[in-house]
Write a structure and sequence with these properties.
Helices cover 57% and strands 15% of the residues. It is of the alpha+beta class. Helix 1 packs parallel to helix 4 (150-183).
């Protein structure tokens, strides 16, 4: 019973870490990366659709991303969606493909991205703490319902705290690496 709670807590905390990794993939660094376009939603005949579902995304060189739509009539919609996504990118199309040059980041833009990375990391920490709170509440209910002893509850709460500390440390390490990646010139 307690093991089920602990497994659930572990799974949910790991989910918060995975979500942070996904968010960080879309944060720009100085190099072109296809994941930068993940948040871009293209108006595909009236339906917001992820860009990866309407175009092939390639990175032919370190400072260029190329989006080749499967439906050539979507070129302008893709270009507009990238422009409107507020990624600091300036796409251009030649009627067949959308070329997205990835300019070197300015010092000011790097600092903005680091600030955003810190915000995303804090959201992840908050999610992990919320999972801890949920787990502790479940243990308290189990104790109140006489499903577990006070000693079992104490041990499980300590285990959840260790899990929480481990995951929060992991968020800090991920943030540190991303910050170094963003600030690298």
């Amino acid at each position: 019973m307690i093991n089920d709670v602990l497994k659930d807590m572990q799974h949910r905390m790991h989910g918060a870490i995975d979500a942070l990794h996904r968010e960080f993939k879309s944060l720009r660094t100085g190099r072109a990366n296809a994941a930068m376009l993940d948040p871009v939603m293209v108006d595909y005949y009236g339906t917001p659709t992820p860009i990866a579902q309407v175009a092939s995304i390639k990175v032919p060189e370190a400072s260029l991303i190329v989006a080749e739509p499967w439906d050539k009539s979507m070129v302008n919609a893709i270009e507009k969606a990238i422009r409107n996504a507020d990624l600091g990118l300036n796409p251009a199309n030649d009627g067949k493909v959308v070329r997205i040059p990835v300019p070197q980041l300015t010092e000011e833009r790097r600092k903005e991205l680091v600030k955003k990375a810190h915000h995303l990391a804090e959201e992840s920490r908050t999610a992990i703490r919320q999972v801890r709170r949920d787990g502790n509440d479940r243990l308290k209910k189990m104790l109140k319902g006489h499903e577990i002893s006070e000693d079992d509850e104490k041990r499980a709460i300590d285990e959840i705290q260790k899990m929480t500390d481990k995951h929060i440390d992991e968020v800090g390490n991920i943030l540190k690496h991303k910050e170094q990646d963003i600030m690298a010139v």
